[in-house]
Amino acid sequence: xxxxxxxxxxxxxxxxxxxxxxxxxxxxxxxxxxxxxxxxxxxxxxxxxxxxx
Length: 53
Known about the structure:
Blueprint: H1 30-46
């Protein structure tokens, strides 16, 4: 039986989590994490949203 679709409500707050399968390490080098932050920053400039950490 498939999982029910996720809610998609305009103006709602969503929790997004970045981690690998089985909690594997995502960023093996500092440069990998820095690249992720750079791409995130570019996305926030293009699509301004509230980012809560």
